[in-house]
C-alpha cells in the first residue's frame, strides 16, 4: 500500500524545471525519459518564427529557443552542435530594439526580454528581423540591439536559413 501511495504521489508531482546549462534564469526545461536517441555527430540547426510580444513580459518565443538549447545540451549534446536562429516580425520586433527606442515606443515597463536576448546573442543565437515589418513599424537598423540582424524580409530569412540546413519549428 505504501508503494502505491508513493507511486501516486510521484505521478502527481510536477516535473522540476532545470536551469541551464547554457542559459541561467530562463529557458528552463524538464528531465525527460526519452526513446528517440540523437545520433552522435548530429548537428541540430533550428529556426523559430516569433511575432507576438507583451510589453513588460519576457518573450515566450525567445525563451522557447533558449529552452531548446538548454534541453539538448543538458541531455549530452555539445553546445557547438546546437544552432538556433529566431526570425522576428510583428510586435516582437520592439523587443529587439535599443533601450531608448523601446522606452520611446512603450511607455511604462522596461524591455523584459533585453537581458535574455543579449545573453542568447553572446552564445551565438541569431536574431533576424524582417525588414518589411521593421520598415512598416518605423524601426531602422540603428534602432536594433547590437548583434541583431536585419533581412529583406522574414520570408527571405527563412529561405536562406533553410538552404543552410535549418529546420523550422512547427509550432
UniProtKB/TrEMBL annotation:
<keyword id="KW-0732">Signal</keyword>
<dbReference type="InterPro" id="IPR003787">
    <property type="entry name" value="Sulphur_relay_DsrE/F-like"/>
</dbReference>
<dbReference type="InterPro" id="IPR027396">
    <property type="entry name" value="DsrEFH-like"/>
</dbReference>
<protein>
    <submittedName>
        <fullName>Uncharacterized protein</fullName>
    </submittedName>
</protein>
<dbReference type="Pfam" id="PF02635">
    <property type="entry name" value="DsrE"/>
</dbReference>
<feature type="signal peptide">
    <location>
        <begin position="1"/>
        <end position="17"/>
    </location>
</feature>
Amino acid at each position: 500500500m505504501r508503494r502505491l501511495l508513493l507511486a501516486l504521489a510521484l505521478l502527481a508531482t510536477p516535473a522540476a524545471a532545470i536551469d541551464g546549462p547554457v542559459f541561467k534564469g530562463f529557458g528552463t526545461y524538464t528531465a525527460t525519459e526519452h526513446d528517440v536517441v540523437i545520433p552522435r555527430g548530429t548537428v541540430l540547426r533550428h529556426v523559430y518564427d516569433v511575432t507576438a510580444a507583451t510589453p513588460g513580459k519576457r518573450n515566450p518565443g525567445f525563451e522557447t529557443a533558449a529552452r531548446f538549447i538548454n534541453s539538448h545540451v543538458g541531455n549530452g549534446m555539445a553546445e557547438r552542435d546546437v544552432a538556433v536562429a529566431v526570425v522576428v516580425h510583428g510586435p516582437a520586433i520592439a523587443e529587439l530594439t535599443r533601450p531608448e527606442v523601446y522606452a520611446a515606443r512603450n511607455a511604462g515597463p522596461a524591455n523584459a526580454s533585453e537581458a535574455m536576448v543579449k545573453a542568447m546573442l553572446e552564445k551565438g543565437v541569431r536574431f533576424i528581423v524582417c525588414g518589411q515589418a521593421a520598415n512598416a513599424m518605423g524601426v531602422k537598423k540603428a534602432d536594433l540591439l547590437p548583434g541583431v540582424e536585419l533581412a529583406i524580409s522574414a520570408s527571405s530569412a527563412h529561405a536562406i536559413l533553410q538552404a543552410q540546413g535549418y529546420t523550422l519549428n512547427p509550432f
